[in-house]
Write a structure and sequence with these properties.
The structure holds two protein chains of two kinds.
Chain A (H helix, E strand, L loop, with lengths): L4 E3 L2 E4 L5 E6 L6 E8 L3 E9 L2 E4 L8 E7 L2 E6 L8 E8 L11 E2 L3 E5 L1
Parallel strand pairs in A: 2-11
Antiparallel strand pairs in A: 1-3, 3-8, 4-5, 4-9, 5-6, 7-8, 9-10, 9-11
Chain B lengths: L9 E5 L4 E6 L7 E7 L6 E7 L4 E3 L3 E6 L4 E6 L8 E8 L12 E2 L3 E6 L1
Parallel strand pairs in B: 1-10
Antiparallel strand pairs in B: 2-7, 3-4, 3-8, 5-6, 6-7, 8-9, 8-10
The chains are: A mainly beta, B mainly beta.
Chain lengths: 117, 117
């Protein structure tokens, strides 16, 4: 089991540039989550999908952030234009949700550390 | 200006001692609870979970206790080892008023565990 795979591991970009973060969930999982982690705010849920459909994007900070899940094995989180305050570690996580409890736990990738200068 | 970040609780123990990490949750509707361990540079890693119809669950060297009356969760680590040093997060699934929660978790701020050899 390769786990949740995120790329790139590190991204350094200049303010105003577009940033795209990528995630491959665990095969067979049908829910995918994007979290952001900072020292100031801890782990924050940005958006999550179930069966490739966005369920709740209320955590997305601004219109500069967008996420897509074109198929069950791939998701992207895009920031355009990026700003220094977007600097954080972005985590992708996946789980299997059968529709009724019990759910399975979230499995996280190792994150993308984004630095916007 | 002065930056203000999260002030995480810390726990320092000697190798071989037992550790107890505590967590309070606020939502009485939460029905699923998970403990995660996060090491530097990695994503949160699943340790153990417990459902609301249980009050205790044991794993390898770890035990989770759930007290629904006071909305309290604890993680006990037996014979703590230096490799257990990490940040530990509790998380809960708050459900969706009878519907599926899609596996969405809400995380606590974390506790830093340091194990001294």
């Amino acid at each position: 089991d390769a786990g949740v795979i995120q790329s790139p591991r590190h991204e350094v970009t200049e303010m105003g540039q577009e940033v795209t973060l990528r995630c491959k969930p665990i095969s067979g999982h049908n829910s995918l989550f994007w979290y952001r982690q900072t020292m100031m705010r801890g782990l924050e849920l940005l958006i999550y999908f179930n069966n490739n459909v966005p369920i709740d994007d209320s955590g997305m900070p601004e219109d500069r952030f967008s996420a897509k899940m074109p198929n069950a094995s791939f998701s992207t989180l895009k920031i355009q234009p990026s700003e220094p305050r977007d600097s954080a570690v972005y985590f992708c996580a996946s789980s299997f949700v059968p529709g009724v409890t019990p759910n399975s736990p979230l499995h996280f990738g190792n994150g993308t550390r984004l630095t916007v200068t | 200006g002065e930056s203000v970040g999260l002030h995480l609780p810390t726990l320092s123990v000697q190798e071989g001692d037992n550790s107890i990490i505590n967590c309070a949750y606020s939502n009485s509707a939460s029905d699923y609870f998970i403990w995660y361990k996060q090491e530097s540079g990695k994503g949160p890693q699943f340790i153990i979970d417990i459902r609301s119809n249980m009050d205790k669950r044991q794993g390898q060297r770890v035990t989770v206790l759930l007290n629904k009356t006071v909305k309290h969760l604890s993680l006990q680590i037996a014979a703590t080892q230096p490799g257990d040093s990490a940040v530990y997060f509790c998380a809960d699934d708050r459900g969706n008023a009878g519907g599926t929660s899609y596996g969405k978790l809400t995380f606590g701020q974390g506790t830093i565990l340091t194990v001294h050899p």
